[in-house]
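Need tokens for this chain, all 315 residues.
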Amino acid sequence: MKGIGAVIVTYNSEGEVGPCLDSVMSRVQHVVVVDNASSDGTLAEVRKRPGVTLIANTGNRGFAAAVNQGIQALDTPYVLLLNPDAVLLTGLDELTGACAQPGVGAAAGKLTGSDGRPQTGFSIRRFPTPLALSFEVLGLNRIWRGNPVNRRYRCLDVNPEVPADVEQPAAAFLMIRRQAWQAVGGFDEGFYPIWFEDVDFLNRVHRAGFRVRYAPGAVARHGGGHSVGRIPWESREVCWYGSLMRYSFKHFRFTGRVLVWAAVVTGCALRAVFGVLRQRRLSPLAVYGRVISFACLRLVSGRIGEAGGMPALAR
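Here are the structure tokens for all 315 residues:
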């Protein structure tokens, strides 16, 4: 418990945050909840638990900025990031031990669903390649889940019960060594409001010379996607593609950027057409047209982009 702080970022998490807090409070030294302007009873639920520090933002600052806020409010050498829809089922000794190994900058535990089965394909992944992201935006990974590119990307070839060095575990249950967070300058707040900020952070941690461990002896039950589901569809699509393009332009060379750009344009054009036919309204044309325009602008300018790439989003 000593030397470990926990950061939980909430957004309309009234129904989830209570069990999460109850599972973690006795296992860490200090808990910080950073709320991104929830409009439900999240704040009241957090305030029921004395000893929890609550940072209530007046606007939605996004996940990356909220994580940085929470870590800055702590002085512990290790910080556990835990989603509000995750509940610890074990202690943190194995996770702390893995994170404390020489040269390790972060460590992740095993995430299970409500059925107790590992969340394979989500819990740990490899860093996305241009081809993996192209398959993703074209929908090929949904149509043919077992294709070689997707198997490698989602670590479908990895035994979820075996400890290992990994590349990109989910930030839903991730312990970070403060030294590593400081070395890379924290999370990139340009990924707004969510998506790819944890991938980018861990990529930079690896490039800074740190290892990342997977410790399946530490387990949390994870619901998944409760906050994302409350974002309107139009904003969700724009945000996801904006963050994907930001990551691509930040980490890929020119040929990789072009490949992802071509896949985004093709995939969005198809989604626009099928969306109009399915929904019988023109809003998909506006949404995906905006994404295509943004992608073309980024390719021509070569700029990474600001705030998920699409600054017109309301915060």
